[in-house]
Amino acid sequence: xxETKIGFGYDIHRLEPxxxxxxxxxxxxxxxxxxxxxxxxxxxxxxxxxxxxxxGEGDIGRLFPDTDPRWKDARSTGLLEDVVRRLRAxxxxxxxADTVIVAEEPxxxxxxxxxxxxxxxxxGLTETGxxxxxxxxxxxxPVGEGRAIACWAVVLVRI
Length: 159
Prior knowledge:
There is one protein chain. This protein is α+β, with helices and mostly antiparallel strands. It has a single domain, classed as CATH 3.30.1330.50. The chain contains five helices and seven strands. The strands form two sheets. Strands 4-1-7-5-6 form a five-stranded mixed β-sheet. A two-stranded antiparallel ribbon has the order 2-3.
C-alpha cells in the first residue's frame, strides 16, 4: 500500500545585474537575475528540495553541488526532471505542489501562467495541482529591499 509523504523546500538567491531572471522555468524580463551556479531558479530549487525531502534523499546541494562544473549555468528545470525521474523510479507520483514566491520586483503574478506551462508537465500535474502564489516582503530584509528573491514549496507525494 503506498505511503503519502510531504516534503518542504526553501531557497533564496541574490539579484545581480547582467544575469537572466529565470523563475519557475520562465524567463522574466528584468534588469537583474538570480545569482547561482546554475540558472539560480529559486522556485525550482525549492521544489527540488521539497521532493527530495519527501523521499528522504537530502537536498539539492548534495545531488547537484555547486563545486561540480557539470551544473554551471544549468537549467534548473533539467535538475527538476532528474529528481522527478528518481521519484518515479521508486514507484512514486506527485499528488500536488504549492509554492510561494516572495519578491518586491518584478511583479510575479503576470508570469504565473508561463511558470505553470513549464512546471506542470515537468511535475506531471494539472494546473489545479500546482499552486504558485506571489507575495512581497513589504520592504523588509534583503527581499524587501529588492536584493533577493525567496521561494518556498511544499509537495505531497504518494510512494
